[in-house]
Amino acid sequence: PRPPLAARPRRISVSGVERWIANPYAIYASDILKLKVLPRLGAEPDAALRGTILHKAMSVFTKRHSDGLPPEADKELTAIAEEILHAYSSHPRIAAFWLPRFARFAEWFAETEPVRRDCVSRTLAEVSGELNFEAAGGNFTLTARADRLDVTDGGILITDYKTGKPPSDNEVIEMRRPQLPLEAAILAAGGFARIDATNIAGLRYIQASGGEPPGNERAVTSKDGEAALAEAALESLKELVARYDCVETPYAAVRRHGYSYDYDDYAHLARVGEWAQAIDGSGDGDGGARS
């Protein structure tokens, strides 16, 4: 599909950029055709719901305790999660697995959070930001809602919470998982509300597995530094926008190595099941089935 330039979106979220890279057709179906997925009746709780609950619980906790930690942080965090999960408490999977796993993560988080809060003046949650730049098709806006921003003397530490496995450093540096570097680009441009600093102190993932280990923390390391990584991410986005500001560029249904398509809501519209069987694994980028 090659829609006219006027129909192509002029804004996207930092998480949407990865989707755009991995599956342009999904952007076409959701943002241009405006086809929204209806919730399935009787659907089982899935990874997306688990992620939503984690982010909401962490947001509520952080907003309550932006300047310091309560005495029993793990109990309060678990109580917040239980309150959020109340609407789903009748489901046996949530009662038997999700709550106990979250309680284990909450205990790990309470034990390790004091170190993370050391030398931090404020911790902010769900901070909105945006960055605007000019492109061939007109002004383009990148938006974000950062999970967590820690204000330190050396700048802002950006954190992304994950229930699944965080991306590797190579995936981040190669812009296959560009969310954190793009949030850093917004920060460097002064685009986050309530944040005056533009220095990037670090990029970090906190994984809430609830298993063994119950939680994990990992900083993104790049030999060129966070500022260069943010600049490279923004430049890659500008190149992506420029490519799709050409009406000859299609929003093709592709299957690219290194991405998961298990939850592609628009695969049936793209008729992936039909053409994928006829592909030998070769492709030509946006015009092919695989690249």
Structure, described:
- The protein has ten helices and six strands, in the order E-H-H-H-H-H-E-E-E-H-H-E-E-H-H-H.
- The protein is globular.
- With 291 residues, the protein is an alpha/beta fold.
- A hairpin with a 6-residue loop joins strand 5 and strand 6.
- Helix 1 crosses helix 2.
- Strands 1, 2, 3, 4, 5 and 6 form a six-stranded mixed beta sheet that branches.
- The relative contact order is 0.16.
- Helix content is 40%, strand content 19%.
- The C terminus is likely disordered.
Write the layout of secondary structure elements.
Elements: E1 11-13, H1 14-22, H2 24-32, H3 47-64, H4 73-85, H5 92-117, E2 120-135, E3 138-152, E4 155-162, H6 169-173, H7 179-188, E5 200-208, E6 215-219, H8 226-244, H9 267-270, H10 272-275
Helix pairs in contact: 1-2, 1-7, 3-4, 4-5, 7-8
Short key terms for the protein model shown above:
291 residues, alpha/beta, 40% helix, globular, disordered C terminus
